[in-house]
Amino acid sequence: MELIFEKSCPGRRASTIPKSDVPEVSVEEVIDKHLLRGDVDLPEVGEIDLVRHYTALSRRNFGVDVGFYPLGSCTMKYNPKINEDVARLAGFTFLHPYSPTEFSQGNLQIIYELQRYLSEIFGMAEFTMQPAAGAHGELAGIMLVKKYFDKKGEKRSKILIPDAAHGTNPASGAHCGYQAVTVSSNSEGGVDIGHLRELMTEDVAGLMLTNPNTLGLFERNIEEVAEIIHAKGGFLYCDGANANAFMGKTRPGDLGFDVIQLNLHKTFSTPHGCGGPGSGPVGVVKRLVPYLPIPRIMKVDNRYKWNYDCPDSIGRVKAFYGNFNVMVKAYAYLRTLGPEGLKKTSDIAVLNANYIKERLKSFYDLPFDRICMHECVFSGRRQVKESGVHTSDIAKRLLDYGFHPPTIYFPLIVPEAIMIEPGETENKETLDAFCDAMISIAKEAKKTPDLVKSAPFTTPVKRLDEVTAARKPDVCWYQK
Ligand SMILES: *Cc1c(COP(=O)(O)O)cnc(C)c1O
């Protein structure tokens, strides 16, 4: 496909403006010279060329509204459009964040009530809605832990992270100045308790645990893990990015977790990808409440207000109050589902993943053959051994069958990992079509491995040089 710059023809315009009826002045007279660049090469095209160019590009895109998108850990599920409609109401989108609270009571009520709902669902004392994404929530959560120890005058230098963890966990710990120490997994895919006991000392601020973990497995020894951490005065942190596996079923607060971040843009109805906006609320137990970011929302005499008077707070972690529109969608989603609907959502997310696991397990290696939660993790090592077909080849071949590939090569502890998360919104026909495609590819890998290794055949671009694209991005060729 031609680039818009290649379609450019000098003098063409996508719009016409009426002749000016005021005296003309040159740009140089009104704009500072150092702000002007003479070499800006902009495409000149007619309106219809412009519309067709971008429409054609948009039709090459793949998203949840186009097809099945089983990206493990990312929860690329379909979200009801009613939540988008609600979030777009003018009173939500156009209210200025500096509007006096007298004029924004309804919006404040949403933030307040959403915090209360999340606290109840996850068993925490209080939530902050400020962080803008999951990783940002992790950072804020660990900052709270650090502030707690600083305030008590305790020096702790390490944070424990299981080897199955999402890469953002060690990054968040390190960003707060902690040394990230890896805890091994056991043969069941859970935390190795012996190793944890060995590592947990009074120099450790806590353990960051994803539950269900990135193998899609629920931590069986969670209460014992909590006991070990708490016995040495540490905090148990829950990466709750994948909460759609257990909502309404169990509460992290009851299991012994002290801090949790959620990803509203995964679990609670905001479509994501391409950088946002997201929302990563953080919930805490009582002893961490004084450190939460400011301002904190309060309800006094039936009025909602912002409270800035929190002397121990870590301060702000985001401009204003967080990504409000994402909160509106989450609020609408929770109010539509209700407690029973929330439970059912988790039931179906888990059922769908187990259905796929059972249908595929005789065709792909399943390193941890247990009932899974919202996702299942296969390994392509059998295909590598039998015919030299790698997981990346299987993923590319899936594109020819019209599916977005699952997450691959993560978690790192599974060789040739294929991590499938169907979500709760797909019907059985879609799950079956996907399984049929995966089975068909497993057979192709045996009979015609070269075909799989050359895929895809039907996409606008074939195999990309991903490493060079990441290391040496070439984003402005036209100026050369
Ligand atoms: C997605 C995810 C994150 C990071 O969330 P972002 O919103 O992308 O920053 C962290 N942990 C887990 C387990 C995740 O799945």
Q: Distance N terminus to C terminus? A: 20 Å
Could you say which small molecules are bound to this protein?
pyridoxal-5'-phosphate
The total beta strand count reads: 12
Decide which structural class fits the backbone.
Answer: alpha/beta
Portion in helices: 25-40%
Total separate domains: 3
CATH homology superfamily name of the largest domain: Type I PLP-dependent aspartate aminotransferase-like (Major domain)
Low-confidence segments: none
Average per-residue pLDDT, rounded, comes to: 94
With helices defined by DSSP (H or I, 4 residues minimum), what is the helix count?
Answer: 17
Question: Can you offer a commentary on this structure?
Answer:
This protein folds into three domains: 4-58, no CATH class; 81-337, 3-Layer(aba) Sandwich (Aspartate Aminotransferase, domain 2); 345-471, Aspartate Aminotransferase, domain 1 (Alpha-Beta Complex). 38% of the residues lie in helices and 11% in strands. The protein has helices at 27-30, 47-58, 81-87, 90-93, 105-122, 134-152, 168-175, 193-199, 222-231, 252-255, 264-267, 324-360, 381-387, 391-400, 428-447, 449-454, 466-471; strands at 126-128, 158-162, 179-183, 204-210, 235-240, 259-262, 282-284, 296-300, 303-307, 376-379, 407-408, 417-420. The strands form three sheets. The chain has a seven-stranded mixed beta sheet, sandwiched between helices. Helix 9 links the parallel strand 4 (204-210) and strand 5. Helix 12 (324-360) packs across helix 15. It is globular, with a radius of gyration of 26 Å. The mean pLDDT is 94. Bound molecules: pyridoxal-5'-phosphate. The site of pyridoxal-5'-phosphate has 14 residues, from helix 6.
